[in-house]
Amino acid sequence: MAKEPRPIDELTIWDDAKAMLRKAKAEGIETVYDRLNQQTPHCKFCELGTTCRNCTMGPCRISAKHPRGVCGADADVVVARNFGRFMTGGAAAHSDHGRDLVEVLEAIVEGETSDYKITDEDKLFRVAGEIGVDTEGRAVMDVARDVLETFFADYGSRKKEISLLSRVPQKRRDIWAKLNVTPRGIDREIAEMMHRTHMGVDNDAANTLLHAARTSLADGWGGSMIGTELSDIIFGTPTPSMSTANLAVIKEDKVNILVHGHSPVVSEMILVAARDPEFVARAKALGATGINVVGLCCTGNELLMRKGIPLAGNHLMTELAIITGAVEVIIVDYQCIMPSLVQVSGCYHTKFIDTANKARFTGALHYDFHPDTALRQAREIISLAIDTYAERDPSRVEIPGEPVDVMTGFSNESVTAALGGSLDPLVQAIAAGDIRGAVGIVGCNNPKIKHDSMNVKLAKELIKKDILVLVTGCVTSSVGKAGLLVPDAIELAGPGLKKVCGSLGIPPVLHYGSCVDNARILQLCAALANALGVDISDLPVGASAPEWYSEKAVAIGLYAVSSGIYTHLGHPPNILGSETVTNLAVSGLEGLVGASFFIEADMVKAANMLDERIKAKRKGLGLSE
């Protein structure tokens, strides 16, 4: 039987979310929390990772009473298989996102689109130089063609290593070579993981997990990093700016358009079309004061950091944004989009629009976006949104609270520029102990956890300890709403961090982009390690995904650990059914790659553990406290 529903006050820390949950309940609209309650209690075998459905001799459930499946696989093999496939789903998602950007660059180079262009030519040439493309005296499009060919080749099977490993410290590359986990090709590692986890192939848990590490590295240093770099080249490298966040960025007097998903390819064109004076005039003719484009999740992060577009919320706010009753259309691309949004939209006048053949939703209006037709299709959607405004029921509109200010748009380039063109001042601040270290807080929301409670608590605990925090993805909304993404937040920081951030006019928590942009954090760690002549594992840094839920979060966590970054998870993946796999994750990897996972649900304890790690790494570098 399902449990009794939790009180609304126990579901989220936010007043705007609570208001919309009460409205949903009053209007009889089902949300993610209702469905979680319907699905509990969960299967214990699944939670432990000891179920196997990889062939039809099963499905099998491994237990102390029945320790082997039909094929003879024990708990170690089954858990490793499941973990490998789960992580590979995440690596495939982020890497396919990267491939989409390569294809947009190809359309630009081949002259197949006039809707997209190369915006940051300097970054194009800089990245080209890093991957061995000759730039001297060459035209932009000639360089771009060689860059896209190099990146396309990174997805294949003919190379010994992917191109952006040029950024990795040699000490780290030597570790990967010794373990035979150097990523060769993005799709190659993904395909090999699927092969290895077929029945009767790789039946050694440790060996399977080493290839999982290799697959995750192909994502972090390959697919995700390609996605980040090409997004900057095509749409512009982020620079600091101010914007706003929470549900109050949806406006009662405007035509409201939500963009949701992960890729900027669609949302950038939606924004261009929405700013067309012709459409603004049409909206005003219907009684609206204008057109309001608002972001959700990582597509929202992409527009927030480049264009300053307001962010309505993260994963667990997506249904609630529609429940305001003021949304004309919600346009999605892919990843982390709940199918329930179609049903919630149907409870209002809202039109739900999908835009990718790889991400169709039953009941949605479909627009098949391609680079050569993108702006035309975006204009059609904006026209539809304006017409839909006339169908809105004002009596059902409720927009809670007031927007909060956030500072956004930090990238490695903008941070370096703020420091005078070099990372030396950052190195000096770390050496002096003003910034004792840095932690990236990344990942998702999970309805099993009180919404955003862990994300916000951990960030606050870390900055008190003079630890700089970098955030991406859904954590952005969390810390933004908590007031941590503005310069005034230095009042919550330790004295050293307060001094450094105050002198630069920046917050102690920096917004570093969408979840694919965790590659920015990898690149920053590599640059610091190279500057100091050490390995990434020697740095006073850490990572955390307090409220994670997705396959992508596991891929991110594993490529962080495999790169030498101590990584915290707020709850464990489904591996506890194997002592071998669990021990490897939380301790055994330390001896192999110089880092490991740790699991902790108490954010004060988690902050203390990250702090102890940073103390040890500072001592190892000869830095005082």
What does this structure look like?
This protein has 625 residues and is of the alpha/beta class. It folds into three domains: 75-235, Substrate Binding Domain Of Dnak, Chain:A, Domain 2; 241-396, Rossmann fold; 414-620, Rossmann fold (3-Layer(aba) Sandwich), CATH 3.40.50.2030. The protein is 49% helix and 10% strand. It is built from 24 helices and 16 strands. The strands form four sheets. A six-stranded parallel β-sheet has the order 6-5-4-7-8-9, sandwiched between helices. β1 and β2 form a beta hairpin. α4 packs antiparallel against α8 (186-196), α4 packs parallel to α9 (205-235) and α8 runs antiparallel to α9. The radius of gyration is 24 Å and the shape is globular. The mean pLDDT is 97.
Provide a short characterization of the protein structure.
The protein is an alpha/beta fold and 625 residues long. It has helices at residues 15-27, 32-39, 44-48, 75-109, 121-130, 140-154, 170-179, 186-196, 205-235, 264-274, 277-285, 297-307, 318-323, 340-346, 374-389, 412-418, 424-432, 453-464, 474-481, 495-504, 518-532, 551-562, 579-593, 603-620, and strands at residues 51-52, 60-61, 241-245, 255-261, 291-296, 311-313, 329-332, 351-354, 365-366, 404-408, 437-441, 467-471, 509-511, 541-545, 566-569, 597-599.
Structure annotation, total helices: 24
Quickly give the CATH architecture of the largest domain.
3-Layer(aba) Sandwich
**Estimated radius of gyration:** 24 Å
Domain count: the total is 3
Report the uncertain regions: none
Oligomeric state of the chains present here: single chain
Q: Kindly report the spatial arrangement of strands forming the biggest sheet.
A: 6-5-4-7-8-9
